[in-house]
Every structure is written in C-alpha cells, then in structure tokens.
Design a protein that fits this description.
Layout: H1 3-9, H2 23-33, E1 45-50, H3 53-74, H4 83-98, E2 106-112, H5 123-147, H6 162-169, E3 176-183, H7 195-198
Antiparallel strand pairs: 1-2, 2-3
The chain binds flavin mononucleotide (FMN).
Length: 218
C-alpha cells in the first residue's frame, strides 16, 4: 500500500485482536515515526513502547477508566439520567467499546521531552512546537501502521488519570504525554466513518479558504 492509499484508508481503530506485532515491524514503525519534522530540530520527543503484559494491563485500565470520565464529562446525559446514572452509563460504555484494549499487544506513548532551547519567556511557543512535533511523529506512525495492516487510534483519555499514568511509568515531572495509541491488528478495519460521524463531517471545500479568510471554496 502506498502512502496516499494509507492516508485515505487510515481510520481510528478501537477493536483489536491479540495477534502479536513483529519486532521488525515495530522497529520500522518507530523509526518512520521519528522521521517526522521536529521544530528547531530539537527532537523534544520520545516514544515509550509498552509490551510488558502487566504494564499493558495498567495502561489499558488507565485509558478505559479515563475514557469513562471523558464520556461523563463531554457527552450529554441520556434523558432522565441523574449525574450518578450518567457516570455509571459512561463507565459501562467505555468498558464496552474499549474492552479489547486489554489484549492489544503493543502501546506507544508519544512523549514531549522539553529541551528548553527557547528563552524562558517564550517557552509556551516551544511547548506548542514540541507538541506539534510529537503529533507529526504519531501521524507518521498511524499512516505507516495502516500500510502494514496495523491499527492505531490517537488517544487522550489518559489525560483524566494523569497522576496514575505518571506514577505507573516513572515519568519525570517535565515529560508530558499528549497522546498514546494502541498498536495491533484490528478485528476488522473500519471502512469510512460510522454514520454518527459521517453526519457531522464537513465538506472539505468549506474548510479551505482561498487567499484570505472568509473566502471558502464552496
Ligand atoms: C487530538 C485528537 C485526540 C483524540 N482523542 C481520542 C481519544 O481519546 N479516544 C479516541 O477513541 N479517539 C480519539 N481521537 C480520534 C478521533 O475521534 C477520530 O480521529 C475522529 O473521530 C475521526 O475518525 P478517524 O480517525 O477514523 O478518521 C482523537 C483524535 C485527535 C486528532
């Protein structure tokens, strides 16, 4: 599969088998990820690869519980639900849709490791540059994984259990974890977006402005 096809066919995968990922494939994907552009060539990044079964279980648990909190926080309650019922339903939904994360063979955590190259008063700009660089690296990984028939999904649910994550993986205070992804073989590759998301997908032309803001290519 070439790069253009892999970009077209990449989809967020949330249902995985336990089929192992070979060391060769994993190494190749990590190296491709780290070929991404990096602001100021600072390489303010690391990829934390989680394959140890106990640590995978810990991470899956953090992500699934964080997902429950995300759904409670971001999605509206069903009609008539009390806040407690909404929280319970959200937790159950996260367990149901993300349950296969417990058997995925590999996780990759995209870390920001600040190099502090900008002067102190400009560190917010450096932080943005660092986070964009990690995002570019992860997108390389997502697309390359798709070309190899492997699934991924950019995931931020761990933001809701950050202290636990930091403790579980021994992360120093300055290291940030903008994104993690499972990496494994999907039960099946989603084709196109599910109807709920297709319904809200904006036509690409409305997202392109020609020459100045306010001139979409409608
Ligand atoms: C910044 C960012 C954060 C995301 N966080 C999550 C997440 O925490 N959990 C999840 O299941 N999907 C997450 N996604 C995936 C999006 O839901 C998904 O990309 C979007 O619905 C479009 O579907 P597609 O990736 O199949 O094209 C995230 C995507 C981005 C870009």
């Amino acid at each position: 599969m070439d790069a253009l096809e892999a970009i077209r066919k990449r989809r967020s995968v949330r249902a995985y088998t336990d089929r192992p990922v070979s060391d060769e494939d994993l190494d190749e994907l990590l190296r491709l990820a780290l070929l991404a552009p990096t602001g100021s060539m600072s390489q303010a990044w690391s990829l934390l690869v989680v394959r140890d079964p106990a640590r995978r279980e810990t991470l899956a648990d953090i992500v699934i519980r964080g997902g429950g909190t995300y759904f409670t926080t971001v999605r509206p309650p069903a009609e008539g639900h009390t806040p407690e019922q909404h929280a319970e339903a959200s937790k159950a939904y996260a367990q149901e849709v993300l349950g296969s994360y417990r058997r995925v063979p590999v996780w990759v955590m995209g870390l920001v490791v600040p190099r502090n190259m900008f002067p102190p008063q400009e560190r917010d700009k450096e932080a943005l540059s660092d986070e964009m660089s990690v995002a570019f690296a992860m997108e390389n990984l997502f697309v390359a994984a798709r070309a190899k028939g492997l699934g991924t999904v950019p995931t931020v649910f761990h933001w809701f259990c950050e202290d636990e994550l930091r403790a579980a993986f021994g992360l120093p205070d300055e290291v940030r974890v903008p994104v993690v992804t499972p990496l494994g073989y999907p039960t099946e590759f989603p084709v196109g977006l599910p109807p709920r998301l297709k319904a809200i997908k904006r036509p690409w032309r409305t997202l392109v402005h020609d020459d100045a803001w306010g001139n979409p290519r409608a």
